[in-house]
Amino acid sequence: MTSAESVICRQESDRPMGDLCIQNAIPVDVARGEIRPACSIIVENGLIAALTDDPAATARTVIDAGGGYLAPGLIDCHVHFFLDAGHAPRVTYLEANDQMRMKWAVRNAAIAIEAGITTVRDMAAPAPLMFELERQVASGAVRGPHIVSCGYALMRPAGHCHWFGGGEVTSVADVRRTIESNLEQGAGFVKLMASGGGLTPGTVPHEADLDLELMREAAEVAHANGTHITAHCHATASIERAIEAGLDMIEHVNFVEPPGRYRYDEQVALRIGERGIVVSPTVFSALQTVRRFRKAGKTHHAGDVAATERLEGRLINTGHFYRLGLKIIGGTDCGATDTPFDSLVDEILSYTRVGLSRAEALRSVTSDAAEFLGLGAVGQVQQGCRADLTLLAGNPLNDLEQLRRPLRVFKSGRLIHEHSREGGNGED
Ligand SMILES: [Zn+2]
Question: Which residues have a beta carbon within 5 Å of ligand 1, which is an ion?
């Protein structure tokens, strides 16, 4: 620090100083479900240092929010960077080379950021590409959200998403080796494929096709390494195995029974609640697939007449989960069929159709998501939180659509996207 700077600091020591001051903003308090009086938000070292009504509050960079609403950046808890979000993501993945796959991932990362999504959890990927993307985003070479990834998901031989390569397991030794290798390279959690899935021929959603013994071993290794573990579960039997194996979370939670029929099971749902297991119902992607099936007049697998009922069941399930007080986090499954990286608002809008308030739906992709995923001080506009913020034209607590096209997006206190220059000033 030069002597001139230290004089300025001394003179203004009673006023908040930082790297960035966002003036004239209305903070959205997602935890309380209310807005706060307009103020200035001071950011320092990527964190929110203060919320202050001091009109003289300033910083090295000053941005006038023009009375806009400052909400936390969103967290999409279920994404697939290396799928193209088109009609046939497995087919296009297998036809592409790594260069093309990385191109999709870079595009997906930008779409997420422009949609105000500042953190994502990637749920199955070609691990080397995934970790390379994370490095590039972390260095700033690629514009994208904070990423938590699992690297390779684990599945039985030829199981769901085996075509990403690297995740097939047949023994507890395989399970341990694969998880430890993922974690060594930078994975932040463990993902299992505990049932079949629509994207993978040779697997069926109603079958629990990963052995309980392997799931137990995976949970033990994950927890010994201080990370959480979750599983893709369509089959009711796979949900029961996830509970039995001691998993922390369940994805899709679809309640599918042989021969592919949807039947919600309240007793199983109650056990999920008793164990405090977090559910990620991924509703919107299922509804998108239903739309596609209806348009095409056919499903993925010939004769799978229960497919639409099963997919629409995810919305019904979410209503039950809410009624039972389960911990719900919002994720889209984007990258998968017809689900682009800006689908998160659609996901939480679907939650409000089955009982969640707008504030509760918003928490499922901000403060609750951060808490249940163990992300630390993220997902709130509050002192001490990571300064992942979106500036909105209207109040999202009155209208979730306001989240869809943020005016500005800040990642760790840095302006990373600006929708319109109108009304902006004072930027670097
Ligand atoms: Zn998925």
Answer: 123, 333
